[in-house]
Amino acid sequence: MKDYLIRGIDKTGNIRVFVASTTNLVEEARTTHNTAPTATAALGRTLTAGLMMGTMMKNENDRMTLKISGGGPIGNIWAVANNRGTIKGYADNPSADAESTNSGKLDVKEVVGRDGSITVSMDLGLKEPYVGQSQIVSGEIAEDIAYYYASSEQQPSVVALGVLVDKDISVRSAGGYIIQLLPNVAEEDIVKIEDAIRNIEPISTLIDRGLSPEEIMEKILGDFEMKVLDKIDLEYSCDCSRERIEGVLKSIGEDEIKLMIEEDGGAEVVCHFCNTKHQFVEEELENLIG
Asked: Would you say 79 and 31 are in contact if contact means Cβ atoms under 8 Å apart?
């Protein structure tokens, strides 16, 4: 199945939903960063959440950075998304792994940790980016995102994220959904949603069975008249370029560049998001100094 996301709303305008199928892009992230199975699940959940959160922004040039810092062995997990369905990300320690739980599931909370915070930074074209933050409550990421929306945005939300890793450590299925309840939602509708969530299978299982985002929305919210507002193709893509890396080098200052020339006769800069190596010889570094 092709990776894509849908945005939907019920006829009363009180329930909005985002459902994403992200198997292919999470597998691309896994191969790019050579992640261990539990790190794959943690990074995949973060990327899936980032994509759905990114599409909530209004403008094409808006940019959102999601940072998960739980104090666990994986370190920080980063995802950078726009509202067009493009994302990139990485984990500080892609080799972080943990024993499976008693039920055989990947123990994501053990690599993420439960002592830290979620930070959401949105560059909306204003003088300063909007920054919101909340505590990590479980390390499972979905619950932590839901808590972020409740505490930082005052937005009641149901968040589900899942990554199923196959026996060969490739990504078998990945995806997620966010259901947000708007101010005038009726109490009986909240009960219906709670009952549906309680009885539904894990999102990774639904995607592994071949259900589309539309079918997943129907399975969860079939008691409501839902309308699909958008269908957005998703991809893992890094926008690094030689020009962008030159800008980074310039920002570290003339003295540091001179030190690179004297000690190494050049520089190699590796992009954290795609692992592309950018080589700069001595003459190119001198040109950056001017």
From this structure: no
